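Before we proceed, please read the two lines closing this message. Report back on whether the structure tokens fit the sequence:
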Amino acid sequence: MKILVPVKRVADYNAKIRVSPDGSGVDLSNVKMSANPFDEIALEEAVRIKESGVDAEVIAVTVGSAQAIDVLKTAFAFGVDRAILIQTDAQLEPLAVAKTLRALVEKENIDLVLMGKQAIDDDSNQTGQMLAGLLDYAQATFASKVEPSNGTVSVTREVDGGLEAISINLPAVITVDLRLNQPRYLTLPNIMKAKKKTAEEIAISALGIDASPRLKVLSTYEPEKRKSGTVYRDTDAFVSKFLAVLAEVK
């Protein structure tokens, strides 16, 4: 079995994000970058599947600039077998990323794609579904449990009403949720070993992908600051204010 885990390079979840002065987007200068947390969960699950005794090769891939190699080093520290950097300096939209991954899946004859349900920078939650559609693969989203067996995968999904258990045939695309696992602590020896490993690099142009943007950002701005609340120490005053607000809503 070949398992592909796409990993996106995003601003670290602890970093303070600032809007660029011209309002065109987010200013990432001097911001710590790291692997998308949902993708780390997918990495952990792929490695666990291999460690459980399944004859599997785990391949990590990221799409981005040369700087994105750092998230592949993280993937090596998790224990993946191979890593691929699809190099581009363009800011790709979910559809372009899905097309890029489709080309790689077909090139590598991937059986299972495990990926985070969304990236924490744009929260699009689109790439996995688009990839499955482009490949015409079975798909399962928001997975909190994944159990591969004899050409099928049993998946427990988190849905609005609780949990849903389904079984899908390979090849398949699965997007993972937070409760699937707790990613392992990366030890210093594994981090040092990962630094010595090299990733295969492929120019996105070699895949023949149409990565032209279909969306235009009109403006980016910070949310309005919440106004301070008012403390009412008198019950009658609070009730009067409450009724006045209700009247405005009506």
